[in-house]
Specification:
Strand 9 and strand 10 form a beta hairpin. The chain folds into two domains: 166 residues, Ribosomal Protein S5, domain 2 (2-Layer Sandwich), CATH 3.30.230; 134 residues, Alpha-Beta Plaits, CATH 3.30.70. The strands form two sheets. Strands 1, 2, 3, 4, 5, 6 and 7 form a seven-stranded mixed sheet that branches. Strands 9-10-8-11 form a four-stranded antiparallel sheet. The chain is of the alpha+beta class and 321 residues long. It is 40% helix and 23% strand. The structure holds (3R)-3-hydroxy-3-methyl-5-(phosphonooxy)pentanoic acid.
Amino acid sequence: MSMNCATRSASAPGKVILFGEHAVVYGQPAIAVPVTQVKASVTVAPAPPGSGLTIVASDLGADYRLDAAPPDEPLTAAARLALSHCSAPEPDATLTLRSTIPIASGLGSGTAVSTALIRALAEFLGCPMETAELSALVFEIEKIHHGTPSGIDNTVVAYAQPVYFRRGHPVERLAVGAPFTLLIGDTGIRSSTREAVEQVRESRRRDPARYDALFDQIGDVASEARRAIEAGRVDALGPLMDENHELLIELGVSSPELDELVESARFGGAMGSKLSGAGRGGNMVALVEEDCVEEVAEELREAGAVRVIVTTITTADTTAD
Ligand code: PMV
């Protein structure tokens, strides 16, 4: 392993889940897309001999030497995983992390931080890795954050492309037949993915038949959405998002604040809308025509959204392996 000790940088986008959250944990398909308007960036720069690895993450309130940090803290765990994957000793370096992705809101903050950190550190160590390897390492860190993640977040963030994801299946990148525009509205309420997933697990334990039927229906919606996205039938996506939201309400993971934003987006002219991610807070997503963007964004703000992000989804022209 040769360390060339030049400064290295990497970044990773946020993401939203468009269809299939929660059901994806139980083997159903789901669709997620990168959100490039927000990102995590990591720079690794050489430091004087003997200084070890220092992690500086002011946006996350963290600033420490690797050897002084708790081993299960996610940033430290990601750095250690990169070192062990690269069979490299701790380098003398300063790792600086910045992120514009809101925390605990379903936009993939933790995932993007781990992805950018592992990629930048591996490159600094002279051991660049393929996207599939990177995604697998980030999945290990996701387990620290979330307990039993499906793997969709690390996949969409590492590949930085729209994906159709099924647990245990090879990654399928989604060809987007016609671009479409999304508005992402933040309730401002932080939500724990781990707790939401645990709540659904407990509900299913009490009534497996009902919950498995809901998961099947969500899976059917995600499969239908995949066909619509690939065929460029954007009109078909709105009603599918509405249907998915209703099923998420039945799963018990929506909240009055999410329902309020979802309804106000529809009122403002969105073609469809739903909560996105773990639910109980965090973000919702609405499908909007170009000329309705401002109107729907205004409705969302009036209904209490603390942040609105606009993003247009196309097939990425990157060539991630
Ligand atoms: O981390 P979030 O809020 O994007 O939610 C993850 C999606 C879930 O389906 C709820 C959990 C998972 O691991 O897939």
